[in-house]
Every structure is written in structure tokens, then in C-alpha cells.
Design brief:
single chain; flat; six-stranded antiparallel sheet; alpha+beta; six-stranded mixed sheet
Length: 1186
């Protein structure tokens, strides 16, 4: 057996699915610290059943799920798969390849599969027990595990030896046998206590059985007389019913006559009321007409008064307008005079202002002329200064150039070998450019190919992510559906258990339905089980049936009689039976359904039942009417004289006689009626969920297969990308080298060509330039002298112009002040004139408005006078019409009063009729109640006969005794007294005595069986202890020898010893490790150095593997404390033991890596995400040597 493959997804730092293939020999896992190497070890431990999260370097279970990073979101599931090669059948399972898969969700749910079958962690423990890789073995040694092994107590260290010795299964079997032995002892104690209690109960129970025999004899005779009393009572009630029916018939005929009389009076009253209504209509019309006439008259009167008021107001307005017209004329004259005065003043001031402006203009012209002269002089000075400075700068530069030319002329051309160097450089540049072109073509081809592969890989990864999300959705859907199926299954089982146990029907009904008697086959079931009610009518039928849902239907009265007898024998209560051969069906009352609102139908037509049980439905519901609402039911019941039994859809029940019941619904009763329908609905829901779950599983398998195919494609693409990236990287390095070389050659050629050209031109220009510079220097010195003379002359002229400029500016300032004052005065007068002109315009406008108002007012006064005359005539005509209308209304009112008197007479007559009718109805109602009470008493009597004796009144009268009622009562009292004298009687004492006696004998047999079983278990435990002792002793001896031998090889000497702490108790003794290093005394393990402790554990590990080679062993940085020499020895031991054991070693040491056959590298590409790379070292070495 060997570990073939590990697959992990979402486990710790493996955010993407990784696949690690393991071959025979030694596999090394390397990588930097924190890259996730040890997560591979943790993954194997977790799948093999490790439940202690701290052993996996975590604090909570969810710590092993990828928690996300800055570039990736957190995952919701962690999954690890281990694949084992089991062709040698090391594992006790009939598969050549064993696949163990464990999965953990972030919500805490966990799953573990063995070859795709759901299993328990306990099953995994048992599968790998005694194989060397079990939960308690040393085949997997993680980080910091060395100290745990050496520092653990001797008793805890023993488990490693047991796993290696292969006695773990023996210990498991022994624990199972001990558990059975404890259970056996507990059962013995329990049965002994029960038998002791029952022995004490048997003696008094035998005495109670004797008393019960006497009671049953007396009770049989008493029942005979009770039957006779009931028959006599039933006959008496029949006579009372016939008398009550006759009296009821008399009251009904009287009620019919009273109702006819009332109808005649009501018809007469209706005719009078119709006449009064016609008069009221005419009176209303007259009143409306009078109101309209009065309204119109009031309107005309108001209009006339309004016109009179307007005429008076117009006269007043006319006088006011005349005053305003005169005032406007006066204001116009005054304003015109003021405007003339302002115009004369403005003419004078404008003339003065014109003179001042002329003087100011002349002064400004003079100022501008002087300023222009000053400006010209300043520009001339500035231009002179600039020219002088420029000449000085030019002169300085010319002198510098002359000195430079003189120095350069002395240096002649000195490099004759430059042309040869230039030719060599050009040749090298041509060759380098050719090589660079070829390299660029090759790089372009590699980049195109790499781009295509990357796009393909990215596309496949996106498809894989979609498939992964689809798998997660499928898993979530499966879990959700399985949960719903589980809840539906539990609900269905609960309903079926309730159905099978008749839960909710009461103990008495359950006794009958659970009876194992011959007559039970003739019991059809309860009413609730035999009828089917639509959901809409459930509340109505619940109210209508009431307790009848628990009635039991039988095929005939004989079955009911035998069931009643069975109830009495078993001390049961009362149950109502409905024999199909005896129950009576009464036809419903004949009513007109169209006459009443809200009627749905008779209850027996709304319920479904099989043909033979329709009679039961008609018997229970044939007299019950179902209606929509309680209000409709009350109206119908009243009109029918409260003789109907009505149920509403909301659960209210109206009984004959007027009683009403209602309120909240009882859930238990509703469940009884709905139980069949609920079971069918739950079964249908469960089937649908099961189908959906199957579809989701199929989709999940399909997505998983597709994901695996895509994963293989991605791996191929990744390898191809790595290969092309390497080629491209190599090509880029080549091209950069060629580009740098070509650039150096080109720059050198360019510089050399440029230097050669400049050298030829420079030599020819030097002589010419020197002559020009000397001539220019002489000219610049002459210009400098001339500019100094002109500067002195311009300074004198500038001083004269400055004095003239100041004088002219002062005179201009004085003129501007005077001119500003005049202009301000003119502006003020102009504003005064404008305001006066506006006032004059307003006055003229007011004059025009007053004239228009005066004209309009005269027209309105004339029209108002004409309208007043017209209104006076209309008012007179309306007053006449109003008087006529009021007279007609008075005549109609008198006629109505006469009719009202006639109606009051009829009302008195109707009141007498109604009183008489109510009295008759009251008597009839009393008769109805009497009949109903008699009917109910007869029903109770019949029910007692049927429930207590299983007889109808007719059959009971045949069996009744022929005696007077007084004699029957006396015999009953005597029998009651005799029964009471017996005291308390246990009616089931006889059966209980027989049952307890049989149970006591059965328990005696069980005790003997338990004692025999105890002896067998003790023998098995003794045999297991013997096998364990022999196997462990032999294994311990061999391991001790191997441990000492390997210890000496590793340390180059010394002594190593394994010792049992209690040699007398081999099965429970701890194991101590005693070591003596070369040239040292024996030391305690805690005093050893880190490397010495590691070598000790390594020696113990290899001694275990020599005694019993493990299929594989995982060692996580076990070589970290070793020096290079010991690492080399460690590698040699790995290679030696790799013939029989597959090693997976997590390491940083080169010596261990050299011993490996296959190497996996773990790196961190993205933040917090590990990636695995692999290489087969032998293949690599073969390629290198080739």
C-alpha cells in the first residue's frame, strides 16, 4: 500500500486546487518559511481523522479554511482528498484504490467520504488501525512533535508501541467486550430489582382477583336491571313526545291565522302610506316652487336696494371729481411758471461753462506739447544709455574672442589615426544590427505564442471558477434539499406514528382500535379517518361534527356490542359507536335556498366518503346547513323559527332552539380531520425533494468531471507558459545585450564623424576671425566716446522742460475745479426742471382722467334709474305668484293630516296583532323546546343502550325484564349496596395476576441467559488479554533491539534502552526511554541537546519501521536541529528504509534534499496563497548528464 495522490482545495493557504502526486521512495517538500509546506502534513493528518485543531496549528475549526487575502476573497469550504493504492489489500476493504475525502464548511458542517460513500471519523480510525499510519502511530511527525514524544508520560508514550505492535484492534475489541459486560451487569441488577418487586405484588394481587370475580357476577345482574330501567324510560318518553307534537300542531295553526290577519292590516297601511307619499311628493314640489319664488323675489329686492345705494354714491362722486378738476388746473399754471425760471438760469450757467472749457482745452494742449518734448528727451537719454552699454558689452566680448582665437591658433590638428578607428567602428555596428534584427523576429514569435497560451489558460481558469461556483451552488442546494427532506421525513414519520397510534382520539377510542379481537376486523375506523373534507369547509365541519369525529363506525350493532363489552372488561371509558346497519338518516328540512343569502348547502353534500360510509355522513351532517357568515346564519335561523342546525365557514354553530357556539379552533381536532390529507401532501413534497436532490447530485458530478478536465488543461498550459517564459526571458536578455552594443557603436561613430568635420572647418576660420575682431574693437571704442558727449547734452535740456511742465499743470488744475462746480450746478437745475415737467404731465393726465370719470358716472346714473323702475314691476309679479303657491301647499297639508289619522288607527290594530302573534310564537317555541328536550333525552337513552349494552331500543325491549318500575328500582338499590360492600375492586385484577405471573417466570429465564452471557464475555476478554500480552511482549523485545542498534549507528556508539515501568502489568505499563551517549554518563532526556533529542526520536522511528514497515511516513522538518553530518546520516537511513516505506519529508536541509527521489517546491505567488511546483530529481539528473 502507498499514498498515491493528495488533492486540496481551500485548505489553509491552498486557495486554488492543488494536486500532489506521490511515488515510491523519498519525496521532499521544500520552500521558504511561511510558504505553506507544513500545510501538506496538516492536510494528511486532518483526513486521517485528526480532530484536535491545535494539532493542526489552529484555534478554531474554521482556521483551516482559506481566510482570504488582499487579492482574494475568503472561501467557504475546505476539502482534502487522499488516494491510496491498496492492491496488496493492506487495508481491510474490497477496493484496489481507496479514496478518503474530508470536507469542512465555514458554518461548521463537516463531511467525510470513503470511496464516495458518506461515513464517520470512527470508520476511518478503524480502517487505518494497526497499519502503522493509524491515529496513534508515529508515521506522521509534525513540527514540534519531537518534544511531545520525548516529554510525554510513559503511559501516553505506550500508544506508539501498541500501534506498531498491531494490538490497537485487540484493545478496541476488549473495550467493546467490557462495555457489553457492564451492560450485562446493569441488566442483571435491574432484573433482580424488578423480580423482587413483582414477588411482593403477586400475593395481594391474587386476593384482588378473587374479589373481582364476585364483583363481575353482581355487576352482570345489575346491568340486566339497568337495561330494564332504560327501556321503561324510553317508552315513557315516547308517550310524552306524542303529546308534545299534538300541542305543537295546535300552536302552528294559530300562528298561521295570526299572520294572515297581520298581513291584511299591513296591506291597508301600505296603501295609505303610498297616498301619503304622493301627497308628500306634491308638497315637496310646492315647497320647492315657493322657495324658488321667494329666492327670486329676495334677489330682485336686494338688486333694487343695491341700485339705490349706487345712485346716491354716484352723486357724491360727481361733486368730488369737480373739486379734483379745479385743483389740477391750478397746479398746471404754477408748474409752467417754475419751468420758465429754471430755463433762464440754465442758459446763463451753460455760457459760463463753455468759456471755462475753452480755457481748459488750451491749457491741456500746452501741457501735452511740453510732455511730448519731455518724453522725447527721456527716450533719447534711454536710447543713448542702452547704446553705450551695448557697445561696452560688445567690446568686452570681442576682446575675449580675440584672446581665445589667439590661443586656439597655436593648437594645430594632432589626431591622424581617427579615420582608421571610424572605419572599424562602422563595421562592428553593421554586424550588431543584423544580429539584433534576428533576435527581435524570434522574440515576436515567442510573445505571440505565449499570448495565445495565456489567453487559453485564463479562459480555462474562468471556466473552472464558474464550475467551482456551480459545484458550491450544487452542494448548497443538496444540503438545503437534504435538510428539507429530513424535516419532511421526520414530519411524515411523526404523522404516520400519530396515525398508527391513533394519537388525539383519547384513551378509550385507542383501546378499541388497538384491540386484538376477532370483532376488530368489523370496525371500519373513526369518523375522522373515513371522511375527506375540502380545506374551505374544514372549520364548518369541525363545528358541525364536534366530538363526533371520535365516533367509531362498525359494520353492525353486534360488533359495537362486543367492543363495548371489551371496553368494560378492560376498565375503559365510554365510546360512541355508529353501526352501519342501525343508524337512522333523517331527510333535511325543505327550505327555499334562493330565498336566503349566503347558503352553501347541506353539510353531508360537501363531505366526501366511500359509498358504504356515506350513510354515516348523512346521519351526522344531514340536518346541518352550511352558510357563509354568522350574520347570514342568524337571519336564516330567525326566519325559519330557530328550527335549523347551521354551521358557518368561520366555525360558529347555531343549534335548534336558538343556542349559539363559537370561538377559537382546537388545533388537535383540526389535525384529526386533516391527518390523511396532510400525510398525502407531505409524501408528495418528500418525493419532489428527493427528485430535486437526485438532479442536484447528478449536476454536481457533471461539474466535478468538467472541473477535473479543465484542471488538467490548466496544468498543461502552465507548463507551456513556463517553458515559453523561460525562452522569452533568455531572448530578452540577448536583445538587451545586442541593443546596448549597437548603441555604443552608433554613438562612437557619430561622435567621431562630427569631430572630423569640425576639425576641418575650425582651422580655416581662425585667421579670418582674428582680423575681423581687431577691426570691430576699434569701431566700438569710437562709438563709446560719442555716446558719453550726447548724454551730457540731453541732461541739460531735460531740466528746462521739467520747469515748464509744472507751471502748466498747476493752471489746468485750477480750471478743472471751477468747471466741475459749474457742471454740478447745471446738473442740479436740470433735475429740478425735469421734476417740474413730470409734475405738469401728471397734472394734465389727472385732468383727462377726471373728465373721463365724469362722463362714465353720468352714464351709470342714467342706466341705474331705468333699472330701478323695471325691478319694481318684476317684484310685484313675483309676490303674486308666491301667494298662490303658499295657498296650494296649505291644502295639501290638510289632506295629509287626514291620512295620518287613518294610519295611526291601523298601527294600533297591527300592534295588537303582533302581540297576539308573539304570544302564539312563544307558546310554539316552548313546545319546540319541549319536543327537542324529549328528543335529546330519548337520544341519550338510545345512546346509553347502544354504548352500554350494544342494543337498539327495539332489541333491548325484548331482553328487558317484565317488572314494575318500583320493583326494578328496589333491585338496583340492593345490588348497588352489595357492590359497595365489596369495597374498592380492581376490575382487571384477574388478568393482571396472570400477566404478572407470566412476566415473573419470563424474567427468571432472562436472568439465567444474562449469567451465561457474562461468563462468555469474561472468557473472550481473558483470551484478548492473552493475545495482546504475547504480541506486545514480542514486539517490545524486537523494537528494543532495533532501537539500540540504530541508536548506536546514528550516534557512533552509546547505549539506548526501552524499559517497561511495570513488568508485571504489561498491558497497562508505560514505556521509559533511557539513553547513554558515547563517552558520557546516562542522562535524562530533558538534558539532551536539540540535535540529540531529534536523533533519539529518529532512532525510535526507524526501529518502529524496521519491526513493522509503515506504508508511508510523513516527517515535517524533523531534521531541523541536526548538523550537516547527522543530516547526511539521516538521508542514508531514509534511502535504506525507502525500500519498504514511502517517505514524504518537509525539509530545509540540502543533505535531505540530496537523498530525495522527487521534490516539490511550495511558493507564495499572491499574498497568502501557496502554489506547488514539482521535479523528479532522477529524471533531471539523467537529462543533465545527457
Amino acid at each position: 500500500m502507498q499514498l498515491k495522490r493528495l488533492e486540496a482545495y481551500g485548505f489553509k493557504s491552498f486557495a486554488e486546487r492543488i494536486v500532489v502526486q506521490f511515488d515510491q521512495g523519498i519525496t521532499a517538500v521544500v520552500g521558504p518559511n511561511g510558504s505553506g509546506k507544513s500545510n501538506i502534513t496538516d492536510a494528511v493528518r486532518w483526513v486521517l481523522g485528526e480532530q484536535n485543531i491545535r494539532m493542526l496549528r489552529g484555534l478554531r475549526a474554521e482556521d483551516i479554511i482559506f481566510a482570504g487575502s488582499s487579492a482574494r476573497r475568503a472561501l467557504s469550504v475546505a476539502e482534502v482528498i487522499l488516494v491510496f493504492d491498496n492492491t496488496d489489500k493492506t487495508l481491510p476493504i474490497d477496493y484496489e484504490e481507496v479514496v478518503v475525502k474530508r470536507r469542512l464548511y465555514r458554518n461548521g458542517d463537516s463531511e467525510i467520504y470513503l470511496n464516495d460513500s458518506r461515513c464517520r471519523i470512527k470508520d476511518i480510525y478503524q480502517l487505518f488501525a494497526d497499519t502503522g499510519i493509524g491515529h496513534d502511530g508515529m508515521s506522521i511527525i509534525g513540527q514540534n512533535r519531537l518534544n511531545d514524544i520525548l516529554d510525554s508520560r510513559p503511559e501516553d508514550r505506550r500508544v506508539f508501541f501498541e500501534e506498531t505492535a498491531g494490538i490497537t484492534r485487540y484493545r478496541t475489541r476488549k473495550q467493546e467486550a467490557l462495555r457489553k459486560l457492564r451492560d450485562n451487569d446493569a441488566d442483571l441488577v435491574r432484573l433482580s430489582d424488578i423480580m423482587h418487586t413483582q414477588a411482593a405484588e403477586l400475593q395481594p394481587l391474587s386476593q384482588q382477583a378473587e374479589k373481582t370475580k364476585q364483583f363481575r357476577a353482581l355487576d352482570s345482574e345489575r346491568r340486566s336491571y339497568q337495561l330494564t330501567a332504560l327501556v321503561q324510560q324510553h317508552e315513557s318518553l315516547q308517550k310524552e313526545q306524542e303529546s308534545a307534537d299534538r300541542e305543537l300542531h295546535v300552536h302552528e295553526e294559530a300562528e298561521i291565522r295570526a299572520m294572515q290577519e297581520r298581513k291584511e292590516k299591513e296591506d291597508q297601511k301600505t296603501a295609505l302610506e303610498e297616498k301619503m307619499a304622493a301627497i308628500d311628493l306634491r308638497m315637496g314640489e310646492q315647497e320647492q316652487k315657493s322657495t324658488e319664488l321667494q329666492s327670486e323675489l329676495d334677489h330682485l329686492t336686494r338688486e333694487a336696494a343695491l341700485l339705490e345705494g349706487r345712485r346716491d354714491e354716484g352723486e357724491k362722486r360727481k361733486a368730488y371729481i369737480e373739486q379734483q378738476r379745479q385743483s389740477a388746473e391750478v397746479k398746471i399754471q404754477t408748474t409752467l411758471q417754475e419751468i420758465a425760471q429754471i430755463d433762464a438760469l440754465l442758459v446763463r450757467k451753460r455760457e459760463e461753462c463753455t468759456g471755462k472749457e475753452h480755457a481748459l482745452h488750451e491749457a491741456c494742449a500746452e501741457l501735452e506739447r511740453v510732455q511730448a518734448l519731455v518724453h522725447t528727451e527721456e527716450k533719447e537719454q534711454e536710447r543713448n544709455a542702452h547704446a553705450r552699454h551695448a557697445v561696452q558689452r560688445v567690446l568686452a566680448r570681442l576682446r575675449e574672442k580675440l584672446a581665445a582665437v589667439s590661443g586656439a591658433h597655436q593648437d594645430s590638428d594632432h589626431a591622424t589615426s581617427a579615420q582608421e578607428e571610424l572605419a572599424r567602428r562602422r563595421t562592428l555596428l553593421t554586424e550588431t544590427q543584423s544580429e539584433l534584427t534576428a533576435a527581435e523576429d524570434e522574440a515576436r514569435h515567442i510573445e505571440e505564442e505565449l499570448c495565445g497560451v495565456k489567453e487559453k489558460c485564463s479562459r480555462i481558469q474562468k471556466e473552472m471558477e464558474e464550475l467551482r461556483r456551480a459545484q458550491e451552488n450544487d452542494e448548497q442546494q443538496i444540503r438545503q434539499t437534504e435538510g428539507e427532506m429530513l424535516r419532511a421525513q421526520q414530519s411524515l414519520e411523526f404523522l404516520r406514528r400519530m396515525q398508527e397510534s391513533y394519537e388525539g382520539f383519547g384513551k378509550d377510542v385507542q383501546i378499541v382500535l388497538r384491540a386484538q379481537e376477532p370483532w376488530r376486523s368489523h370496525v371500519a375506523g373513526t369518523v375522522a379517518d373515513l371522511i375527506r373534507i375540502p380545506q374551505r369547509f374544514l372549520a364548518a365541519m369541525e363545528a358541525a361534527l364536534g366530538g363526533s369525529v371520535r365516533n367509531i363506525v362498525t359494520e353492525d350493532a353486534q360488533t359495537a356490542k362486543e367492543a363495548i363489552g371489551y371496553l368494560k372488561r378492560n376498565h375503559g371509558g365510554r365510546v360512541t359507536f355508529l353501526p352501519l346497519t342501525t343508524i337512522a338518516v333523517r331527510s333535511p328540512r325543505d327550505i327555499d335556498a334562493k330565498q336566503y343569502k349566503g347558503i352553501i348547502g347541506w353539510a353531508n353534500t360537501l363531505v366526501q366518503a366511500d359509498g358504504q360510509f356515506q350513510r354515516v355522513v348523512d346521519h351526522l351532517l344531514g340536518q346541518t346547513l352550511v352558510m357563509e357568515t354568522l350574520d347570514d346564519a342568524l337571519v336564516t335561523a330567525k326566519k325559519e323559527g330557530y328550527r335549523l342546525r347551521i354551521a358557518t365557514l368561520t366555525g360558529e354553530l347555531l343549534n335548534p332552539g336558538g343556542s349559539l357556539s363559537g370561538g377559537g379552533r382546537r388545533k388537535q381536532q383540526t389535525m384529526l380531520l386533516n391527518r390523511h390529507a396532510e400525510i398525502e401532501a407531505t409524501e408528495a413534497n418528500l418525493a419532489a425533494k428527493s427528485k430535486l436532490c437526485g438532479e442536484c447530485r447528478a449536476a454536481r458530478e457533471e461539474h466535478q468531471n468538467a472541473w477535473q478536465i479543465k484542471n488538467r488543461d490548466v496544468q498543461r498550459c502552465t507548463k507551456q507558459i513556463e517553458q515559453l517564459s523561460g525562452e522569452l526571458l533568455k531572448n530578452n536578455g540577448n536583445r538587451e545585450l545586442l541593443q546596448a552594443r549597437a548603441l555604443d557603436h552608433a554613438e562612437a561613430v557619430q561622435k567621431m564623424e562630427h569631430a572630423e568635420q569640425e576639425r576641418a572647418i575650425y582651422s580655416a576660420q581662425l585667421a579670418k576671425k582674428r582680423v575681423q575682431l581687431e577691426r570691430h574693437i576699434a569701431q566700438c571704442e569710437a562709438h563709446e566716446s560719442r555716446f558719453i558727449y550726447e548724454r551730457e547734452k540731453l541732461n541739460q535740456v531735460g531740466r528746462e522742460y521739467g520747469a515748464a511742465l509744472k507751471k502748466t499743470a498747476d493752471s489746468i488744475h485750477a480750471l478743472e475745479v471751477e468747471l466741475a462746480a459749474l457742471r454740478t450746478s447745471i446738473d442740479t437745475e436740470e433735475m429740478h426742471r425735469k421734476s417740474r415737467v413730470l409734475e405738469e404731465q401728471d397734472a394734465r393726465k389727472t385732468q383727462r382722467d377726471i373728465a373721463a370719470q365724469e362722463k362714465q358716472l353720468s352714464e351709470e346714473l342714467t342706466a341705474g334709474i331705468a333699472r330701478i323702475a323695471s325691478l319694481s314691476e318684476e317684484i310685484s309679479a313675483q309676490e303674486k305668484l308666491l301667494r298662490e303657491s303658499r295657498k296650494n301647499s296649505s291644502d295639501l297639508r290638510d289632506a295629509r293630516l287626514a291620512h295620518e289619522a287613518d294610519v295611526r288607527v291601523l298601527d294600533e290594530a297591527l300592534k295588537k296583532c303582533l302581540l297576539n302573534l308573539e304570544e302564539i310564537r312563544s307558546k310554539r317555541h316552548e313546545s319546540d323546546k319541549l319536543v327537542e328536550r324529549i328528543h335529546m333525552r330519548m337520544g341519550d337513552c338510545c345512546e346509553c343502550l347502544l354504548s352500554d349494552f350494544g342494543l337498539t331500543p327495539e332489541s333491548a325491549s325484548v331482553q328487558a325484564k317484565h317488572a314494575e318500575p318500583q320493583v326494578v328500582s328496589a333491585h338496583l338499590r340492593e345490588l348497588e349496596s352489595a357492590i359497595q360492600s365489596l369495597g374498592t375492586v380492581n376490575p382487571n385484577a384477574i388478568e393482571e395476576y396472570e400477566e404478572k405471573k407470566a412476566r415473573y417466570e419470563e424474567e427468571e429465564r432472562q436472568v439465567e441467559d444474562l449469567k451465561s452471557a457474562k461468563q462468555d464475555i469474561e472468557q473472550i476478554i481473558q483470551k484478548i488479554d492473552q493475545d495482546m500480552t504475547r504480541t506486545f511482549r514480542e514486539a517490545f523485545r524486537q523494537i528494543q533491539e532495533y532501537f539500540n542498534e540504530i541508536f548506536v549507528r546514528l550516534f557512533g556508539g552509546g547505549i539506548a534502552e526501552l524499559r517497561l515501568t511495570d513488568k508485571e502489568d504489561i498491558l497497562n505499563s508505560g514505556v521509559e526511554i533511557l539513553v547513554t551517549l558515547p563517552d558520557k554518563k546516562r542522562q535524562n532526556l530533558s538534558a539532551l541537546s536539540g540535535g540529540e533529542r531529534a536523533l533519539t526520536v529518529i532512532a525510535l522511528l526507524f526501529s518502529f519501521l524496521r519491526y513493522r514497515p509503515s506504508p508511508f511516513s510523513i516527517l515535517d522538518e524533523i531534521d531541523a536541529p541536526l548538523d550537516e553530518a547527522n543530516v547526511s546520516r539521516f538521508g542514508d537511513f531514509l534511502q535504506e528504509f525507502a525500500k519498504h516505506t514511502q517517505f514524504i519529508v518537509v525539509t530545509h536541509r540540502k543533505g535531505t534534499m540530496r537523498a530525495a527521489d522527487t521534490m516539490y517546491g511550495v511558493t507564495v505567488e499572491d499574498a497568502g496563497v501557496s502554489k506547488v511546483l514539482s521535479i523528479r530529481l532522477k529524471d533531471y539528473e539523467a537529462e543533465q548528464s545527457a
